[in-house]
Amino acid sequence: MQTDIDPRSLIGRKALDRNGAKIGTVDEVYLDDATGVPEWAAVRTGLFSRDAFVPLEPSDLVDNTLRVPFDKALIKDAPDFGVGRHLSPEQELQLYRHYGLHTSAAPAPPDQDFGTLANETP
Question: Which domains occur in the chain, in start order?
Answer without folding.
Answer: 7-98 (3.90.50.10)
